[in-house]
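I hope you will forgive my troubling you with a question about protein structure. The record follows directly beneath this note:
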Amino acid sequence: MTLQPAAFTDAEIDALVETFYAKVRQHHRLGPIFEDAVGVNGWPEHLRTLKRFWAGVLRGDRSYKGSPMAVHQRVEGIHAGLFTPWLGLFHATCAELFDAPRAALVGAKAERIAHTLKRGLSFPSDAVA
């Protein structure tokens, strides 16, 4: 019998989103793309949206209303090579915040999301540059 990880709390989802996107904003390649897309004053609302999104992914909450694909299609400067550092920061954040099984669970979901976005944005799934 395999034990299922405990449900993610609001506090854990908040920590995931806030910690991860603080790292993204400091990243030399990702930071400028996100700052252009979100804007200096748009971060509080963007983080609220991302928390609703991840609550949906991790708990099945239905408070997120939106289309990640449509949003990413409008982002200037996005390219396949940005997914590798995004995932690297994401996995590092998960390892920092959660025990190994929960970090792996969240990381696997992020990997699937990245794969779907790359395919939807017409980037090859294995593109790294």
Remarks:
- The CA atoms of residues 5 and 101 lie 7 Å apart.
